[in-house]
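Researcher: Structure for this, please.
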Amino acid sequence: AALLEAAATAHGWDAYTRARDINLRHDGRWYEAIARVQPVLADVQFRATAEERIVVGARASAKSYSGGSGGAKLASRTPASVEVWVNGELESNVEKRAAAALVLDAYRLFWLGPLFLKEQGAVVEALGPGRARGAECDWLLARLAPGFGFAAEDRVMACVGRSDRRFVQLRLSVDGLAST
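Model: Predicted structure, token format:
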């Protein structure tokens, strides 16, 4: 627990808790190999520009996608629900909704790192020293329940840099989608 506390502090926990929401925009495309292996998760026809809103203090976020060949997509996630809108139509496909929930939750980890783990009350344990990307680190294991998307539980291993206590590398389980 002390290692997660140190990492959360290094990543700006105090400033984070004073915020109401975080809004960001990013551009990118999934690698073709991922799209072939996980087509529903990658959903490449919508992967161009994304704008995301993260509500601080709640497991709630929304993401809009634009610029892809499929048109516009909006996904919204709270602990109790997930809604996906594609070109103005509510998506009813269970697998696509599960994929959207998983992506929203996982991206929250990617953006926030230890802030997400602390906010979600992850159960953590220190795994010992190691190296990642040339940096000396201490590994921690975090158990999230619920996990990403609709998973009952997921696990995250994080390499916490010794020099600055920032996350250097993440490894995670992804059990929230049948195909993963």
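Researcher: Any notable elements?
Model: The beta strands are 21-27, 49-55, 60-68, 71-77, 82-86, 89-90, 123-132, 135-144, 154-161, 167-172. DSSP finds six helices and ten strands in the chain.
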